[in-house]
Amino acid sequence: MQMAIVTTRSEQACFGGTIGFYSHASTEIGAEMKFSIFVPPNASPRPRPALYFLAGLTCTEETFMIKANALRHAAELGLVLVAPDTSPRGLGLPGEEDSWDFGTGAGFYLDAEAEPWRRNYRMYSYVTRELPALVEANFPVDAVRRGVFGHSMGGHGALVIALRNPQAYRSASAFAPICNPVDVPWGEKAFGIIDAVSIMDEKIRLIGGLHYRTVQVSNWSGITGLPTPGYDQSAVTPSVSLIVRPWKEVWFYGNFLQALEQGPSQQAAWSSTPIEELLRARRK
Q1: Of the residues 118, 149, 175, which one is the last residue of a structural domain?
Q2: Is residue 277 domain-resident?
Q3: For residues 83 and 100, what is the distance between their CA atoms, to the nearest angstrom?
Q4: Do 112 and 239 fall into the same domain?
Q5: What's the number of domains the chain is made of?
Q6: Chain segment 121-180, per-residue pLDDT in tens
Q7: pTM across the whole model
Q8: Which residue from 147, 148, 149, 151 is spatially nearest to 176, judged by alpha carbons?
Q9: What CATH number is given to the structural domain containing 41?
């Protein structure tokens, strides 16, 4: 496989090393991808171990490098830091920019299985195969001493990647990871049970799915601090999407998604005034 050309967007001296921001044409993604690298001082000609950081929802390849204050420590320890973007960008797919937790900035570090995402949203393959090969071919990085870590969505990605590829990583760390994504609203969008049927050479595609949703609301009295009736309900809700692609570059997309919303709470078996509530609390 021919190695892609790396384009330098910017480079700056930092803690004796270099922080750089780069882009390249990705074969896995089928579009331009961006990443950043911090190379510590005295890294050449001796290759250095590399830590790959996977950022959370809405982040970019810049977020960790400019906010985490990690570069000073990496310089002292002689570590290379690598941070890819969290998704492809600017593809123009239907629904790609509709919400902050699905599509752009929300690649989940997995390979998508559903249309229209499966061709370009291949972040698992990109992070585990293409990006390390690109980095190791263009920077003084030790291909054997490699680690992966991440935060939130990236913490989930780091755990999945390390568990699936134990031979490829010397270390794995997760900060506040999403360990059970199917039980949170944005995870349900990405991890629901789905199936698809297509006709006319995939010009018409119908996608159906099921999502398990839970709404939990806890209430407390502002006077006594005692719990009051809340809400805790779960349901399996359907979703249906229709994609029509009459021409190669033209898409029509519509979907139906049934939500679970809070209903009326059960009334308490007794009623009282705030003073009576306070007296009950004091007696206890």
Answers
A1: 175
A2: no
A3: 20
A4: no
A5: 2
A6: 999 999 999 999 999 999 999 999 999 999 999 999 999 999 999 999 999 999 999 887
A7: 0.68
A8: 151
A9: 3.40.50.1820
